[in-house]
Amino acid sequence: MKHIAILLCLATPALAECPAPPDHDVAIARLIEQLRAAPDQASAEPLNARLWELWTDAPDAAAQEVLEAGMRRRANYDFTGALAQFDRLVDYCPDYAEGYNQRAFVNFLRQDYAAVLTDLDAALELSPTHVGALSGKAMTLMGMGRTDEGQDVLRQALGLNPWLAERAMLIPRPGEKL
């Protein structure tokens, strides 16, 4: 199976130079403010879905195709194929945060936590308010037994989106109201 994935990567034509990622910073900031003000989970769900639409808006059609191919492979548990696609995406568009975030997700599923943290740090460097990357980092740190660090990162993520499902994993500090 590994050899097939390598052959597919070699057979896939090389991509040209990646343009800059779309600038959705203003729209993302608005959505985060709306999430913070959302009165309940039901109100937050469409806002969160819109965030994911923006994060997964690739720099061009070629990058979008590679991103979607990787996500399809991941959904079908073809982690080797998904990693090959996300490697290709990161190589092609090194300034696009979602390439790193998606590769991190595959590595999380594979329990390769060191690779996860490297990619999530890269994603967060490019997109500091990427709630998905923050919550992924929190889950990874806690999965590694680094609970205090994970809880701190989870609090950062919840500060941006208090309606994350991962909020159920928050351990209250003494005197803290949740």
UniProtKB/TrEMBL annotation:
Transmembrane segments: none annotated. It comes from Lacimonas salitolerans. InterPro entries: TPR-like_helical_dom_sf (IPR011990), TPR_rpt (IPR019734), Ycf3 (IPR050498). Keywords: Repeat, Signal, TPR repeat. Residues 1-16 form the signal peptide. The keyword Secreted does not apply. This is Tetratricopeptide repeat protein.
